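Subject: design request, 134 residues
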């Protein structure tokens, strides 16, 4: 999300709230932000590329609190060894009481979970590492 700062994202979210939009989508070269209030979803997907070890880092697209499960006591969306497809939900980041889904940008197997449930995350923190298919 190198072309927008976290403050830019907060301003976009404020403007969407003020305008009362039910749906909104913003796509850039490095990420896609999609909000659908009727479905109660917000998705923010970073573009990722494999690191030197062949694993793809999924990073925090914003500052907030990370939740690995949809609700307390529920199993996590994914764990080490889980196979994911592009767009599969990996976790939720809560920002200003808005739940933002973080999705996989590559298909593959979750090789590492880098954060604990309920942890505060910063923009760019590595959340998951995925061994990409193919």
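Subject: RE: design request

Done. Sequence follows.
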């Amino acid at each position: 999300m190198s072309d927008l700062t976290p403050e830019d994202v907060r301003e976009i979210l404020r403007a969407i709230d003020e305008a009362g939009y039910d749906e909104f989508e913003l796509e850039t070269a490095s990420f896609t932000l999609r909000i659908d209030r009727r479905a109660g979803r917000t998705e923010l997907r970073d573009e990722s590329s494999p690191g030197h070890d062949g694993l793809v880092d999924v990073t925090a697209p914003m500052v907030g609190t990370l939740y690995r499960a949809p609700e307390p006591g529920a199993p996590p969306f994914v764990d080490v060894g889980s196979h994911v497809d592009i767009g599969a939900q990996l976790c939720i980041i809560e920002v200003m009481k808005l739940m933002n889904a973080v999705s996989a940008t590559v298909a593959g197997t979750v090789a590492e979970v880098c954060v604990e449930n309920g942890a505060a995350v910063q923009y760019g923190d590595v959340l998951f590492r995925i061994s990409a298919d193919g």
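The radius of gyration is 14 Å.
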